[in-house]
Every structure is written in structure tokens, then in C-alpha cells.
From TrEMBL:
Keywords: Cell membrane, Lipoprotein, Membrane, Palmitate, Signal. The lineage of its organism: Bacteria, Pseudomonadati, Pseudomonadota, Alphaproteobacteria, Rhodobacterales. InterPro entries: Entericidin. The keyword Signal applies. This is Entericidin A/B family lipoprotein. It comes from Plastorhodobacter daqingensis.
Length: 42
């Protein structure tokens, strides 16, 4: 079920960005959040 929902979430996420720069900022923020969570888990 999740594998069907993932592409929809990706499309909605990209649609929320007005520009390529906005998409880059969103991806960067997600990467920062993942890094932070990984460090806390150690």
C-alpha cells in the first residue's frame, strides 16, 4: 500500500515548491532533519 502512496506524496511535495530553488531547500531541510534524528539515535 505504501509503495502506491509514495509517488503521490512525491508529486504533491514537488507541486508545493514554486521553483527548483524551493525544491532544493525542501530537500536540504529534509536531509538536515534526517541527519539530526540519526545523531540523536546514536
Amino acid at each position: 500500500m505504501l509503495y502506491r502512496l509514495f509517488p503521490v506524496l512525491v508529486i504533491l511535495g514537488l507541486a508545493a515548491c514554486n521553483t527548483v530553488e524551493g525544491a532544493g531547500q525542501d530537500i536540504s531541510a529534509a536531509g538536515t532533519a534526517i541527519t539530526s534524528e540519526a545523531r540523536q539515535a546514536q
